[in-house]
Amino acid sequence: MIFKCHYQRFWDKVNIKNEDECWEWQSTISTNGYGQFRYYNQIFFAHRVSYTITNGPIPEGKLILHKCDNRLCVNPSHLYCGTQADNINDRAIRSPNSQGSGNDGNISMFSESDADTMKGLYYKDGYFLKSIAEFFNCSVSLVEKIINGKVKNFKRQSKLTVSKIT
Ligand SMILES: [Zn+2]
Fold first, then answer.
1. Fewer CB atoms near the end CB (10 Å): N or C, the chain?
2. Distance between CA atoms of residues 145 and 141, nearest Å
3. Are residues 12 and 67 both part of a single domain?
4. Ligand 1 centroid from CA 72, angstroms
């Protein structure tokens, strides 16, 4: 949670442009390319902060996604609240009953590169388990297992598909 009197501290790190342009984060960037906002010894994803400041709290288990596909962008009008299944990258679509936190039944939804991202966020970037769990839309205990190397049966990396060569 960010206090209203500190919002300006956040916007000071943003290159604010016209409403239809991307507003890029000018401060620390995470290993996976998202802006990071440090606040009272916690690190937040900048796009999530932007969404929260503009729209209020993010519903539990929801992700903040980019319409513009620019991970550094924190323009509130380029952000929307969605689920992992809405995410445009090729992560596996979660099964309909695996929504929400506290569900550990979806280990197979994550690939080894997801595990590497989680480890990076935790060990290198100093994210709290809770933030990582929110970001990946899974339970804290699952994140903990993954970063401690207790999960082995990852989903295979999706192979690049060559649709049709003419
Ligand atoms: Zn944008």
1. C
2. 6
3. yes
4. 8
d(CA 6, ligand 1 centre) in Å:
23
For the purposes of burial, counting CB atoms within 10 Å of the CB of 144, is it exposed (0-12), middle (13-18) or buried (19 or more)?
middle
Residue 41 Cα to ligand 1 middle (Å): 27
Indicate the range of 14-28, 85-99, 106-120 predicted with least confidence.
Answer: 85-99
Confidence category of residue 59, pLDDT binned at 50, 70, 90: confident
Q: Is there a domain that residue 56 lies in? A: yes
- Ligand 1 centre distance from Cα of residue 3 (Å): 24
**By residue range, what is the domain housing residue 144?**
90-155
Q: How many domains does the chain have?
A: 2
For residue 136, how far is its CA from the centre of ligand 1 (angstroms)?
21
**What is the rounded CA–CA span in Å between residue 35 and residue 25?**
6
Residue 115 shares a structural domain with residue 68: no
15 and 31 part of one domain: yes
pLDDT at 36: 92
- Where is 79: in which H helix or E strand? strand 79-82
Distance from residue 150's CA to the centre of ligand 1 (Å): 37
